[in-house]
Each structure stands twice: as structure tokens, then as C-alpha cells.
Amino acid sequence: YEEMMTSRHDGKRFDVYIREVKGQVKGTVILVNDSTNLYVLDILGKVAMNKAASLFNALDESSDIGKKIKD
After folding, report:
1. 6, 18, 31, 52: least CB-packed within 10 angstroms?
2. Is 18 helix (H, G, I), strand (E, B) or coil?
3. CB 51 within 8 Å of CB 41
């Protein structure tokens, strides 16, 4: 896996990694961590980097994972 993006927001760190095979993205891993928790999202395929912020917002607003990330 290769690191593609790192971001910080509200005391949390977001790291995005991709796995490529023959030039094609086969997997994306997103790590969200703060001082006490680590959440790992393992996604088959790719997430467009220009859409990563939208993905973080969607997780933050509408899912169980988002609720846990907020706590």
C-alpha cells in the first residue's frame, strides 16, 4: 500500500492508502485515528482523491462509523 493523502480535522487524523496492481487501483484503506481510537475502512477498488472529503463527510453525517468517529 502507498500513502496517498493525510488530513487532520477536529483532533482526528485521516490517512488514505491505495494498493495498485499493474497500474490499476485494487484497494483503498482509510485510517481514522485520534489519541484513543483507530478505525480502519478497507474498500475494494478506488476512491477518487477529489471525492475523499465527500466520503469523510458522508461517513461523518450518516453512519454508525461516523458516530463512532465523532465520539
Report:
1. 6
2. strand
3. no
The long-range contacts involving 6-11, CB below 8 angstroms and separated by at least 24 positions, are: 7/53, 7/56, 9/56, 11/35
CA geometry: angle 51, 53, 57, nearest 5 deg:
115
- Separation CA 28–CA 20 (nearest Å): 9
The pLDDT averaged over each successive group of 10 residues in the chain (71 residues) is 87 89 90 85 80 68 61 54
15 in Cβ contact with 5 (< 8 Å): yes
**Bridge partners of residue 17, in order along the sequence:** 3, 29
How many helices (H) and strands (E) the chain has is answered by 2, 4
Widest pairwise Cα distance in the chain: 39
